[in-house]
Amino acid sequence: MQMVILCGGLATRLGNLSKTIPKSMIKIEGKPFLEYQIENLKKYSIKDIILCVGHLSEKIENYFGNGEKFSVDIKYSYDGEKLLGPMGAVKNAESELEKVFFIMYGDSYISIDFERVYSYFMKNNKLGLMVVYKNYDKFDKSNLSVKENMVIGHKASGITDNINYIDYGTSVLRKKSLEFIPKDTFYSTEQFFIELIRKKELMAYKANKRQEFFLS
User: What sign results for the dihedral spanned by CA atoms 4, 92, 94, 65?
Assistant: First the structure.
């Protein structure tokens, strides 16, 4: 299994804390947050990792290198001078991607059985699967509508009925899904997932508990 971790962005909500280091390099009890993420992925046999980086990316690369000392294989995909947004960055890494891969955000520690999610996805023929959590606006503003095993609506697309779920922070995608994304263009996760929902290509995998930890 392969994981793409979205480590770009300017992390403006963290203020001065992220002016000299990327958000994913902020230390928690002496270790960068990203290191905890990688350690967690290894528990589920995910050792093929692509880091989509931008702001102060050299600090990430200097620490993690090719991943050998962490017993994983790390490759880097760089935004360059032009910000591409999360899914624009994934599109930029297309040449390094397997036919099926995970994506996750670089600011959340996810408690989910990735192997089980992957197996569930591979039994179907959809382009994408999003892990979702039934939130009822409790921890964050709910923005997704889910019916059975499909995500059927997104608040940003004008859907207002049965908006009870949120994105848990990780998804599985087929490489073919990236055909919707223009090259060298800013493209958000919101735009991307709305397109998959419109085409009825986004499955849902329901998490039973919320994320254990995330940086904000």
Answer: negative
Q: How many CA atoms lie within 13 A of 150 on its CB side?
A: 15
pLDDT per residue as tens digits for the range 137-162:
777 788 899 998 999 999 888 877 78
Residue 1 exposure: Cα atoms within 13 Å on the Cβ side: 21
Over residues 180-209, the pLDDT tens digits come to 999 889 999 999 999 999 999 999 999 987
The whole-angstrom separation of Cα 74 and Cα 84 is 21
For the chain, the structural domain boundaries read: 2-208
Name the pairing type of β-strands 31-32 and 27-28.
antiparallel
Indicate the pTM of the whole model: 0.89
Q: Count Cβ atoms within 10 A of the Cβ of residue 106 and give its class: 0-12 exposed, 13-18 middle, 19 or more buried.
A: buried
Measured distance CA(26)–CA(82) in Å, rounded: 24
- For residue 81, give the nearest of 60, 57, 63 by alpha carbon: 57
Distance CA 30, CA 16 (A): 19
Class assignment of domain 2-208? alpha beta
